[in-house]
UniProtKB/TrEMBL annotation:
Gene3D superfamilies: Phosphatidylinositol (PI) phosphodiesterase
InterPro entries named in the record: GP_PDE_dom, PLC-like_Pdiesterase_TIM-brl
Segments forming domain GP-PDE: 53-322
Name this protein carries in UniProt: Glycerophosphoryl diester phosphodiesterase
PROSITE patterns from the UniProt entry: GP_PDE
Domain of life: Bacteria
Length: 324
C-alpha cells in the first residue's frame, strides 16, 4: 500500500509538471490577431534566383529569374526602394578595402557580378567604384545581360549608406572570420559622425563579432557561436520561462524548421526575447543561402500572431501581403 501511495504521488507530481510546462509555454492566452511580422529586406531590393542546387561556389548572378524590377542589391537605390516598400530593416554586406574603407558588396571575389577580377578586399575603394556591378547578371544563360553598363559607380561605401539613411536600421554582415576586421569595423563606425548606433546590428564570423562586441558593447551582434549558445541553452531551460544570459542583448535568426521546437514559439518566445532586448528573425527553410519568405505561399507558413522579423528577398511582394 505504501508503494502504491508513493507511485500515486509521483504520478500526480508528473501530471502537475506537465500541466505547468504546457500552460507556461502555451500561446492560447497570448494570441494577437492584429500582430504583424516586421520585414528584414536582404540587401534591399535585389534580383532573385532559384535556391535549388546552391553551393558556396555558385554564381547566383548567372541564374537570376527574369527581372521584375531594375534594382541591384547592396546599392543605395535598392535600399531606398526597400524602405519605400516598408522594410523595417535592410541587411547589407561589407568588405574592408586596402585604403581603409568598407565596401558594400556581397561576394568575396569580383568575377561573378562585375567586370573586375580578384578578391574584393584586395582593392581600393576607388578601384571598386570604377566597376560595373551589374555586368554579370543574366536570366537566359548568357544570351542577354540586362544590367550590363548600368552598375558603374554603384558600389557604395558603408559610410555613404549610413549617412544617406540617417536613423534607418541596418543589419551589417561581416563576410570573414578575421578578428582584425571586427576591430576595423568598430573604429570605422565610431568615426562616422551623427550615426545612431542603436539602429545598427551586425552578424558574421565568430572572431570578428566577438571583437566588435568588446569594442562596441551597445551594438547588437550575432554569430553562429552566439546563436547556438542561446538556442541550446534555451531549449534546455526555456520550459521554465527562464531566458539564459546567452540570449540577452543579441539577435537570433531562427530557421523555420527549428522554430516549432522552441519553448513558447511564437508569441511567448518572442515576448521573452523582447524582454531581454533580443531581436528575433525568422528565416525560411533551414536558413541556408539567404532563404526568405518571398511570395504568397511563403506567407502562409508564417505563424499566426508572430510579430518578430521575417527575412525576405522580395520586400516589394511581401509588404502588401503582410502590412496592408
Amino acid at each position: 500500500m505504501k508503494l502504491k501511495k508513493i507511485m500515486k504521488s509521483i504520478g500526480i507530481l508528473l501530471l502537475l509538471l506537465i500541466l505547468f510546462i504546457f500552460l507556461n509555454n502555451s500561446n492560447w492566452f497570448q494570441k494577437n490577431d492584429q500582430a504583424k511580422p516586421k520585414l528584414l529586406a536582404h540587401v534591399g531590393m535585389a534580383q532573385t534566383y532559384p535556391m535549388d542546387g546552391i553551393t558556396g561556389e555558385t554564381c547566383t548572378a548567372k541564374r537570376i529569374f527574369e527581372p521584375e524590377h531594375s534594382y541591384i542589391g547592396n546599392t543605395i537605390p535598392s535600399m531606398e526602394a526597400a524602405f519605400e516598400h516598408e522594410a523595417d530593416i535592410v541587411e547589407l554586406d561589407v568588405h574592408p578595402t586596402t585604403d581603409g574603407e568598407f565596401a558594400v558588396f556581397h561576394d568575396w571575389t569580383l568575377e561573378c557580378r562585375t567586370d573586375g577580377a580578384g578578391v574584393t578586399r584586395e582593392h581600393t575603394m576607388e578601384e571598386l567604384k570604377n566597376l560595373d556591378i551589374g555586368y554579370g547578371y543574366t536570366a537566359d544563360g548568357g544570351e542577354t545581360y540586362p544590367f550590363r553598363g548600368k552598375g558603374v559607380g554603384l558600389m557604395p561605401t558603408l559610410k555613404e549608406v549610413l549617412t544617406h539613411f540617417r536613423n534607418k536600421p541596418f543589419l551589417i554582415n561581416i563576410k570573414s572570420n578575421d578578428p582584425e576586421e571586427g576591430k576595423k569595423l568598430a573604429d570605422y563606425l565610431s568615426n562616422i559622425p551623427g550615426i545612431n548606433m542603436e539602429q545598427l546590428s551586425a552578424y558574421g564570423g565568430n572572431k570578428p563579432i566577438q571583437v566588435l562586441q568588446e569594442e562596441l558593447p551597445n551594438l547588437r551582434v550575432m554569430s553562429m557561436e552566439t546563436l547556438k549558445s542561446c538556442l541550446k541553452s534555451y531549449m534546455g531551460m526555456g520550459w521554465t520561462g527562464y531566458v539564459p544570459s546567452s540570449c540577452k542583448d543579441t539577435q537570433v535568426h531562427i530557421p523555420e524548421n527549428v522554430a516549432p521546437w522552441l519553448w513558447g514559439f511564437p508569441n511567448k518566445f518572442q515576448d521573452r526575447m523582447e524582454a531581454v532586448n533580443t531581436r528575433v528573425v525568422l528565416v525560411a527553410g533551414e536558413g541556408k543561402w539567404s532563404e526568405g519568405f518571398d511570395d504568397k505561399g511563403d506567407v502562409k507558413r508564417i505563424p499566426e500572431g508572430y510579430d518578430g522579423y521575417v527575412w525576405t528577398n522580395r520586400v516589394d511582394v511581401l509588404a502588401p501581403l503582410i502590412k496592408e
